[in-house]
Every structure is written in C-alpha cells, then in structure tokens.
Amino acid sequence: MSTATVSRVLNNPNLVKPETRERVLAVVGRHEYVPNSLARGLMTKQSKTIGVLIISISNSYYMEITEIIQRRLREAGFMMLLAATDDSADLERRYIREFASRRADGIIVIDASDENFSDGFFAKESAKRPFVLVHSNPAISASGIGQVFVDQRLGMRRVMEYLEGLGHRDVAFLRGEKGFSFDIKEAAWAEWRAERSREVRPDLVLRVADGNSEDAIPLADAAVGAAIREGRLPSAIFACNDLMARGAVNAATRAGLRIPEDLSVVGHDNTILAVSGRVQLTSVDLKMRDIGAESARLLLAALSGSSAGRRSARIEPELAVRDSAGPAAAADSRVRGGSA
Amino acid sequence: MSTATVSRVLNNPNLVKPETRERVLAVVGRHEYVPNSLARGLMTKQSKTIGVLIISISNSYYMEITEIIQRRLREAGFMMLLAATDDSADLERRYIREFASRRADGIIVIDASDENFSDGFFAKESAKRPFVLVHSNPAISASGIGQVFVDQRLGMRRVMEYLEGLGHRDVAFLRGEKGFSFDIKEAAWAEWRAERSREVRPDLVLRVADGNSEDAIPLADAAVGAAIREGRLPSAIFACNDLMARGAVNAATRAGLRIPEDLSVVGHDNTILAVSGRVQLTSVDLKMRDIGAESARLLLAALSGSSAGRRSARIEPELAVRDSAGPAAAADSRVRGGSA
DNA sequence: CTGAAAGCGCTAACAG
DNA sequence: CTGTTAGCGCTTTCAG
Fold first, then answer.
1. Neighbours of B166 (CB within 10 A)
2. Is the distance from CB of B204 to CB of B172 less than 8 angstroms?
3. C1' (C5) to CA (A34) span, angstroms
4. DSSP state string for A178-235
5. What's the whole-number mean pLDDT along residues A42-46?
6. What is the rounded CA–CA span in Å between residue B77 and residue A98?
7. Is the peptide bond before A327 cis (omega within 30 degrees of 0)?
8. What is the DSSP letter of A100?
9. Which of A203, B79, B211, B323 makes the best surface tag, with the fewest CB within 10 Å?
10. Peptide bond preceding B260 in cis form (omega within 30 of 0)
C-alpha cells in the first residue's frame, strides 16, 4: 500500500482493484486523513481556488454578486478567496499578486479599476491565468480578457424613457460627489437631454458628499429638502442609489409632498431599501444575480479550457416598477389608497 | 545566486549582503517573480490563509462581521477563504475539511451549528488548528475552543427594561417561524415576563413563515396588520430583526396608528433599515464590528502562539435608541414634529 | 555571508 | 493492477 496507491484511490478510484481500494479507504477513514492541497497543487499546478475581488464587503450590491459566485464555485469544486480593495487600485494590484502567489486558478474582479486597466496590468495578468472583469465602462472592451459589461447607460435610458412616458420633461439627478458609477449615470442622463435639445441644466444635478455610506440617506434628505424649499425641484427625481432615493422620499414626505402625485422618485440598485418603506420605490435592477452567475460561468468556462463559449457577457439592467413614480401633473386624476 | 539566496532575500533580507540583496531584488523585479505560496506552505506548514464560514453571504449581518475580519486579517498578512453554509451542519463540516485540506492556519465559524458542537466535531478539529466560534448559545461554553459569545439574552433584557421604563407592560413578540436566534430571543422575552409573574401569553407572539429573507417585510406587515384589526396588539411590539420591524411600522402606519404615540416598535440588528425610513427605528445593536474584531483578534492571538490572552470574548449588545418607541399611554403629553 | 543538498506531501511516469 | 522513482518550488540545515 504505497502512497501512490492511496493517491490513485483518491483521484482515480477505478484504476485500483476494488479490494485494495476498500482497504485504503478504510485506513483513510480511520485516520481521518486529509490530503494536503498545497502539495497536490504544487504537483498539479491547480489550487482549486478562485480569487474574488470586490470594493467593499459590507455592501449589499457586491455581496449579492459574491453570493452567487461562491455558490457556483462550490458546485464546480472551487473555494473562494475574497478580499476588498476599498476602491484602491494599489490594493487591487496587491491582492491580485497575493492570489497569484497562492496560485489561484482564476480571478474575478468586480468593478475593476480603470487605472489597472489602462496601464495594461489586467491584460498582462490575464495572460497568466483566466480573468473575469466586471465593469460598466463602455470605453473598455479591449483584448481577450473575460468581461461582464453592465450596461448602466441602458439602465439610465430606461429610467428616462419611463419618466418621459409619464410626462416628466425635467428629471433632477441626485448623486454622490465622487465615483465612476455616478459619472457614468450622469453622462447618460445628460446625453438623454442633449438628444432632445434640452439644456443640460446644472441646477438639476444635486450632489451629496458621501453617496455610498449610510450617511447618504440624511445627506440626500437635506439636499432634496433644500431644493424643495428653494422651489428648484422638477416633477421627478432620479437617485443614483436606493439610499439617496430613500432620503429624497423622506424629505419630500416631510415637506408635505405626496409620492408619486406631487413628486416622482426613481432609485437605483433595487435593494432591500426599495421595498422596505410604505412607499415602494421604483428602482433600476442591475441584475446582480445575473452578474454573479455570468462571472462564474465565464471563468469556469475558461478554466475548463473550452474555448467554445463567448469570452464576454453583457448585462441589461431592468426597471423594477413600483409606486414611487407616476404621471406628471396629473395629481387630481389619480385615486389614492391601495389594494391590500 | 542560488535559490537559497533568493529565498533569504525575500524572507530574511538582513542575512544577505546588501550588495547581493540588491542584485537579487533587481532580477526579481525584472522578471516579476511571484513566489509560489503552495511550495512555501509545504515547507513552512503555514498557508497564511484563514477560513471563514458564515451562514449566508447576502446578509448584512454576516457581511459586517466579515468585513472587519477581512480587514484585520489583511493587516496581519493573511488572506481569507470565505464560504457559506446555508445553515447546513453537513456543509459546515465539508467546508471545514476543505479549509483543512488547504491547510488554513485558522478557522472562524460565525453562528456555528449546534450539531457540530454537541457531537464533538469542533472540539476535535480545534485541536488541530486554531478555531474561533461565534455563537449566542449560552449552553455552549465547553473546552478550550476560542469563542465569541454574543449575549442576545442581555440584548433582549435591555429592550424589555427600556420598554418597561416607558410604561409598557405587555410587549408583543414578532419572530420568524424557525431559527435559533428567534428561539433564544423568545426565551429571554418569556423569562422576563415569568420573572414578573406575568403570564407568558402565546397570543402576544406573532410568527411569520420566513423571518430572514426580504419577504419578511410584507409578511410581518400582514401579521401585524391582522393583529391590529383584531385588537390584540398591546402598546409595544418587539421584532426579531429590522426587516420585520419595518413591516410592523408599515402596517401600523397604514392602520392610522402613530409611531411612537400609539404604538412603540423596537427592532433588532440595527441595520441600514433602521435609519432608512421617516421613522427611525430604535433597534438592538449586536455590535457586529466588535464581533468581527474580537473574532480576528482571538484567532490572530492563537496563531501568534501567545497563550497569554483570553481564549474567549463576550459581546454585549446595546440598544440604539431612536424614535420608534415612546411612553405608553402618554399620547397627549407628547409634542409632534421635530428638529430639522 | 553564500551555495549545496535534503525534504515538505503529493502525483505522474515507468516498470514490473 | 501496484510499487518505485523523480520532481513540483520552496526553505532550511550544514558546510565552506
């Protein structure tokens, strides 16, 4: 009963005579032998481990994606190394190096930094092992890197289309000060106006200092409250996430505005916040589960070497329509009070 | 320039003459050499990796804990393997085996299963490598396993004390059908009543089928709405999490009850939901960040072999007091409308 | 201070 | 079908 035989029993049981196989298994069970993956990986050049990089762990957006990824990886027999970059391109690089050092078989980066993209870092790394990058930057499409492109511009257009259909000509835009995801949405918002020869009025853009932490709620509340008092809020407002949308709803309600009769509000991300209050938010659903599933699928496909499938995917956000947006200037024709 | 020298430069630079050190570093940099952790781990018996097990990834409770853990691990030079058990004791075991196989230097299990505790599995595993178990089961205290005990009973008593001080004699208890965390809270709630010779009235306990998913909001809404209509809701209600607390608030508001004048509501977990609505929820803060920090601290201490520090920690939940609970039967003496 | 040599636990040829 | 052998890439004596 040599070590080689044990190895065979564990990896290719059918190469071993049933009788000896049983004997080996018995000993293995009795001694609770746990194979050393490090040694195995050294030999096979496979760690059965995937590195996943996100910006922040305590963020429901990333966690929903990560949950699906982890589930899919488990089904395929992989474990997940997870780390958060805090939006630092430097940390992103360092973690990718760590993944590489641990010989991760593949790497998924959610909201990959522009910086590491433009200087070719990802391209170089992706030559060494399968990579999947999740992002919403239309400018990025180069090379043979696995990509999941989240079409946020499309999401914004769906919002604008929907509100336009309800008769809202002007839509205020509520965003956090800094952040690519805010920028790309604002660009799409401005584009929409430009296409219709409507002036891209800066006074329609409301900014709060911190758009992502939970402070965003009171900050948005204050910003929207001020806009209402100063009479510079149109009939509808779009918020770049549900946090700020909630803040907007709170401010409007406190100011005595009814939603959606007096003000239409649309949020983004379709998180639990959208359905937590008495007024249910119409919100853009980024299809997080799809993003996770596609990321995992793409990576797993690359790992199994099947150069068959597509190397990239595109996710189309959808508008989850609820109660917070309604027809413009049609307050009287609406009936209040609801079903259940 | 042998491999041994390179190894020394990377691990004990001072053992090498500055001149050769530079030379090695130059080559390392030029070739972008990334050491193979698998090989290193095989030799050193250290993987610089920690396994973390939680019940569900898309759950803000676990993610807040995990976020801190990951940060602390990074600071100490460890990477994190993360997996979700879906509350299955079997999966829990399997993942712990996977961690073991990958030679994780230590393992943290958040909300460890009772099953694997009582049959001695954790005790046995913990002999092989440092373990930290996070749980709120007072019955568990055995052995030399690292433990972070979250005193949920204390949290409940603080709620009851607070409401009692506000004049609420009867507090309805809103919970999900199944779950240890619901059971332990209900036990503390019942205990409180028993101590005061108040009958443990079953009609004060409201149950919803699924207490943890986002369906909990409408389910709680319906349950509380029914209780209101049937006139069997006392002056205060405690919900086992903020999801259900939000549902309760929505139902009460729809029924025309003012909060907190007509009904006091207390939630649990102190999540973003507590501060998202116009009425800010008073909620039990389980101190997730402390739980994460203590877990990491305990594990790291065990790893550094300093048998000095305590092997366990106890977390005391606190009540985050906001606006959703107020004096009982004192509606008239309260002034409505607020500060900003 | 540096090189040579052994070996961590495993798998993959290669004989038998 | 099974044992022997070599070697994955590193660290660690042990000499020099």
1. 17
2. yes
3. 30
4. S-HHHHHHHHHHHHHHHHTT----GGGEEEES-SSSTTHHHHHHHHHHHHHHTT---S
5. 94
6. 10
7. no
8. H
9. A203
10. yes
CB contact under 8 A, A80 and B82: yes
- Which residue of B47, B56, B278 is in closest CB contact with A250? B278
Structural domains of chain B ordered from first start: 3-35 (no CATH), 47-152+287-317 (3.40.50.2300), 153-285+321-336 (3.40.50.2300)
Do A134 and A112 touch, CB atoms closer than 8 A? yes
Q: Which nucleotides of D are covered by protein (CB under 7 A)?
A: 1-5, 7-13
Residue at B149: amino acid letter: F
pLDDT at B24 over 70: yes
pLDDT at A338: 31
Give me the pLDDT at residue A305, please.
Answer: 75
Mutual orientation of helices B18-31 and B3-11 as an angle, nearest 10°? 100
Torsion of CA A85, A90, A91, A93, to 10 degrees: 100
Nucleotide nearest to B19 (CA to C1'): C1
pLDDT category at A15 given cuts 50, 70, 90 is confident
Beta carbons of B44 and B30 less than 8 angstroms apart: no
Strands B79-84 and A79-84: antiparallel
What pLDDT does residue A273 have? 95
Q: pLDDT for A137-185, tens place per residue? A: 888 776 678 999 999 999 999 999 999 999 999 999 999 999 889 999 9
Alpha-carbon distance values, B3 to A44, B6, B10, B41 (Å):
22, 5, 11, 16
Contact A82 B80 (CB under 8 A): yes
Nearest Cα residue to B177 out of B214, B206, B200, B138: B206
Give how far Cα A119 sits from Cα of A48, A93, A98, A122, A149, Å.
Answer: 29, 12, 20, 8, 19
- Determine the Cα–Cα distance for residues A72 and A295; give it in Å rounded to an integer: 10
Question: For the residues B273-284, what does the mean pLDDT come to?
Answer: 96
Between CA A174 and CA B30 the distance in angstroms is 47
At residue B143, does pLDDT exceed 60?
yes
- Cβ contacts of A102 on chain B, cutoff 8 Å: 37-38, 47, 49, 79
